Amino acid sequence: MENDTLVSLEDLGYQGPLLEDGALDGALSGGAASPEFTKLCAWISTELRLYCQLEENVHATNCPSEAEAFQLEMSGLLSELACPYPVLASGDITQRFLNSTDCLLLLTFLVSELEASRMILVNKPEKKNQESGSPMFLELKGICMSLGMSKPPANITMFQFFSGIEKKLKEAMSKVPSHHVGEPLMKKALGPVHVEKIEAINQALVKEYEMRRKMLLKRLDVTVQSFGWSDRAKTHAEKLASVYQPLRSALCTKSNISVAHLLAARQDFSKILRTSSGKIREKTACAINKWLERVPNQSAQHCPPPTPGSSAKHLPSI
Predict the structure, then answer these.
(1) Which of 38, 124, 183, 297 has a CB 3.0–4.6 Å from the CB of 61, allowing a cystine?
(2) Where is this region: Disordered (predicted)?
């Protein structure tokens, strides 16, 4: 099977060091503790993301001590791919992908998934933008359906199409109170130059917040990993994974905010609510807050009493 796997990897375009004689056997023996093995799995994962809409991503490790992070990420990917092999997708996460037999089975499964994804793309190539449902087409289709418009004829011009949307919008707006939608946040007309600059700013913000989300998700993964360190928690590792992985796979890193959201924003978006306000606290309050309220203020306990003649403004703030 090792030779078949090597041939398949070479056919898929892999050009890493594991193609050399005996290198794959050594990596399979090391399993999750082998950085070379994790690099190969990370490469296959990256290739799969080009053809499948996957939320999970597998990163290569740099040392054996990072094996647990790889096991968690790979377990999430296998869950998303609906892996049929219980030895790979169930049981204690920290005990997965440690022997050569399981690692070879893992590679065989991942390689077959990548091969199947490429075959599907060849046999069923992507259709044109409108037929496959490009974001712009889906947005326009949603507008037409929301306004109750029929399918426009094929020979209609863009001016006629948007004029029809404008007419339907005015009809809909006439049936609701004048302040139902609210005033737009962006009142100035935007030209092509403005839109281009706003798009550039938005792309910079998207990249920034994508990095922040990745950091927060990594912190979440590490925190969940720490829950399984105790001997008692290790007995419930499978139950923890079955609860956590579906929730984790639903958390994505990319933002879907676009210039259209800015144009659609109303003035109430500019009202910034404090995180301690009543409306916000209704959704963020939890049982632990009651315990925090009982904890005495440490700064008040250690604050020295005022000396005679001293001014209150010199006291530390409490």
Answers:
(1) 38
(2) 297-318
